[in-house]
């Protein structure tokens, strides 16, 4: 099978649904989604930092987050590949809402 021949590829209805949903969103909604995803990623990274360094104060966690963001920015500027892993978007809403609630609870402490 030729990988470029789309007529012989299996059709994934979930993928098609996600593409159609994405195309239905306005540019403004997509821009807001980007900011929301960045904020969520920062909250997840704070959780990872707290797990890795449980004795860090809030200021130290923020300093480490800024450092990691600077390294990521440098890697991107230099064209260094950064593996984002595999995102299972089918169950994203439930999983991310739990993580978001946990991250929000940590922020309030």
Task: Write a structural description.
By secondary structure, this protein is mainly alpha-helical. The protein has one domain (6-108). 70% of the residues lie in helices and 0% in strands. The protein is built from four helices and no strands. The protein has helices at residues 13-24, 27-52, 58-78, 92-108.
Shape: elongated
Describe the largest sheet. Answer: none
The number of domains is: 1
State the helicity in percent bands. 55-70%
User: Low-confidence parts lasting 5 or more residues at pLDDT below 50?
Assistant: none
Count of β-strands: 0
Terminal-residue CA separation: 56 Å
Radius of gyration: 18 Å
Instruction: Spell out the helices and strands N to C.
Output: HHHH
Q: Can you give the mean pLDDT?
A: 78
Q: How many helix segments?
A: 4
Strand content: under 5%
Broad structural category = mainly alpha
